[in-house]
Design a protein that fits this description.
With 546 residues, the protein is mainly α. The chain contains 17 helices and two strands. GO terms for molecular function: cytochrome-c oxidase activity; heme binding; metal ion binding.
């Protein structure tokens, strides 16, 4: 009785155990939970947008154009800055990378906790705009309109982005140092799991790209409040300077949201194909190529901004070339699936039919948009909206969901409900195609993005109604995902250490892992995806506590 009371007295409080934790796994879980909350908030804004577009003509759910502008600004900003980037880099990255490389924690645990709370603070600042006035400038905040934007909306947006950028940089530094300095013995770079490879490249993109965004929005704030004229053409400034700075970060930011997703796909496919990954080195080094080329394509967003044609052609070429390393990954995944013992579990459906199928559609439309003549015609139309949603929602979001279900047993110690999981997949898959595929058509018909009324005689109403119905289906899928998680946590079967028979290091420890990941330091003796070829991949070298 006395021993039990003593143990209870020593148990840390919730604040110390979670909110002040330096355990990378708990920080990753907190990133994931908060990120999903932002996902629902950003998704609610999307449903408002789609409901407004259900019928042409008079407003339905938003009273005026400014309110509609505020809705799509909050939708885009929340989904990019508060959900997709933190979920793929911080939530999955924090939980998985130290275990995957054989480390007991991140390199800088306290800085890791600080980065999380900066992320929460940035989110709170963003949400405060619902009270102080939402920005109406879109997630790009182009001058000169943004300089004259009334109220505090833009100022709050800039402050939030600065805080989130600092969190992102701290997280990137932590990942880079962890991978370079804390790998287990025998874990060479050519034995790194492919998710770690993609996350490492992503961290470098964040480290080098985020300061450009910080410079762009800081000078924008100076133009608004301190009398500078960086973007005031009448006073000798140049509004295109902002676009160059903004897209120098924001196009590589697309790969911040895509590369970790590709890493998740590379982890799941060989496990459920029961084959070694085809072309390990090609997949790994193509991530480096994407990271490098991502900084050479930014100006393809500016073909209609007044940039000389001769300047646009090199960016057209690089925008087409960057499709090559992505195609290398797709073909290597297909080769892995070829004649494999494929088991289409929920994670496998999300990364094959989901990511590979829908990302390929987005990638092919991206090749069209990379061509200057086509981009001039399609720029700022719903064709572009369809393209980037197929890449980021049809692609990256499918990988996020596949990763959640794949590592759910490892994180929670419970198996998820397979029937519910597949229901979630089909609702997401059908809803995504119904929502975004018709946008190709209405874009080619001439419907511009960022408008809340359209001509009922232009033949766009049926396509918009299909898209709106699809968005409701996605909303139902999101609710079903939460139901599946709750049901699985309550009544799911107890998960073994390695329910999938996977070969990477995180599956060698218990589900969920112990506090410091490994009781004894592993010694890596083989590559991570050699199914059936290596009997003993990991041996114990010494205890972490020794």
């Amino acid at each position: 009785m006395g021993a039990t009371a003593t143990a209870a007295a020593r148990k840390p409080s919730f604040v110390r155990d979670w909110l002040l934790t330096v355990d990378h796994k708990k920080i990753g879980i907190m990133y994931g939970v908060v990120g999903l909350l932002f996902f629902f908030l950003g998704g609610a804004a999307a449903l408002v947008i789609r409901t407004e577009l259900l019928t042409p003509g008079m407003p339905d759910v938003v009273p005026q154009a400014d309110t509609f502008n505020q809705m799509f600004t909050m939708h885009g900003s929340i989904m990019i800055f508060l959900f997709m980037i933190p979920m793929l880099t911080a939530a999955f990255g924090n939980y998985l990378i130290p275990i995957m490389v054989g480390a007991h924690d991140m390199a800088f645990p306290r800085m890791n906790n600080l980065a999380f709370w900066l992320y929460v603070l940035g989110g709170v600042v963003f949400l405060s705009s619902f009270y102080f006035g939402m920005p109406d400038i879109g997630w790009t905040a182009y001058p000169p309109y943004s300089i004259e934007s009334p109220g505090l909306g833009l100022d709050i947006w800039v402050t939030g982005v600065h805080i989130l950028g600092l969190s992102s940089i701290l997280g990137a530094i932590n990942i880079i140092v962890t991978v370079f300095n804390m790998r287990a013995p025998g874990m060479t770079f050519n034995r790194l799991p492919l998710y770690v490879w993609s996350s490492l490249v992503t961290a470098f993109i964040q480290l080098f790209g985020t300061p450009a965004l910080a410079g762009a929005i800081t000078t924008l704030l100076f133009d608004r409040h301190f009398g500078t004229h960086f973007y005031d053409a009448a006073a000798g400034g140049d509004p295109m300077l902002y676009q160059h700075l903004f897209w120098f970060y924001s196009h590589p930011a697309v790969y911040i949201m895509v590369l970790p997703a590709m890493g998740i796909v590379s982890e799941i496919i060989p496990v459920f194909a029961r084959k070694p990954i085809f072309g390990y080195h090609a997949i790994a080094y193509s991530s480096i190529a994407i990271g490098f080329l991502g900084f050479l394509v930014w100006a393809h967003h500016m073909f209609v901004a007044g940039m000389p044609l001769a300047t646009g052609v090199p960016f057209m070429v690089t925008s087409m070339i960057i499709a090559v390393p992505s195609a290398i990954k797709i073909f290597n995944w297909l080769a892995t699936l070829w004649r494999g013992s494929n088991v289409f579990t929920t994670p496998m459906l999300f990364v094959t039919l989901g990511f590979m199928g829908l990302f390929t559609i987005g990638g092919l439309s991206g090749i069209y948009l990379a061509a200057v003549p086509i981009d001039i015609h399609m720029h700022d139309s719903y064709f572009v909206v369809a393209h980037f949603h197929y890449v980021l929602f049809g692609g990256s979001m499918m990988a996020v969901l596949g990763g959640i279900f794949y590592w759910f047993p490892k994180i929670t110690g419970r198996m998820y409900n397979e029937k519910l999981g597949k229901t979630v997949f089909w609702l997401y898959f059908i809803g995504t195609n119904l929502t975004f595929f018709p946008m190709h058509y209405i874009g080619m018909m001439g419907m511009p993005r960022r408008v809340f009324q359209y001509d009922p005689a232009a033949g766009m109403q049926v396509a918009n109604q299909i898209a709106t119905f699809g968005s409701y289906l996605i909303g139902i899928a999101a609710i079903m995902m939460v139901v599946t998680i709750i049901v699985s946590l309550r009544i799911g079967a107890k998960a073994p250490a390695n329910p999938w028979g996977a070969q990477t290091l995180e599956w060698t420890v218990s589900s969920p892992p112990p506090e410091h990941n490994f009781i004894e330091m592993p010694y890596v003796t083989a590559a991570p995806y050699e199914f059936g070829e290596v009997e003993e991949k990991y041996t114990s070298k010494k205890s972490f506590g020794a």
